[in-house]
Amino acid sequence: MKDDKQNKTPFFTKLKEYGLSNVTSFDVPGHKLGKISNELEDFIGQNAFLLDSNAPLGLDTLSKPRGVIKEAEKLMADACHAEKCYFLTNGTTTGILAMIMATCRANDKIILPRNVHKSIINALILSGAMPIFVKPDIDIELGIANGVLYDTYAEAIGNHPDAKALFIINPTYFGVVSDIKRITELAHENDITVLVDEAHGAQFYFCDKLPLSAMEAGADISATSIHKTGGSFTQSSVLLAQGKRIDHVRLRSTLNMLQSTSPSSLLMASLDVARKTMYFEGQQRIVKLIEMADKARENLKTIPGLKVVDRDYIINRGGFDFDSTKIVIKVSELGLSGFEVFQKMRKNYNIQLELAESHIVLAVLTIGNSKDDLDNLYLSMKDLARRYYKIRNRLPKIKFTYTFPETYVRPRDAYHAPKIQLPLEETYDEVCAESIMIYPPGIPFVIPGEIISQDVIDDIKFYLKKGSVIHSDLDNGYIKVIDKEHWIKWEGEGDEF
Question: Which of 27, 62, 146, 430 is a plausible cystine mate for 481, CB 3.0–4.6 Å?
Answer without folding.
Answer: 430
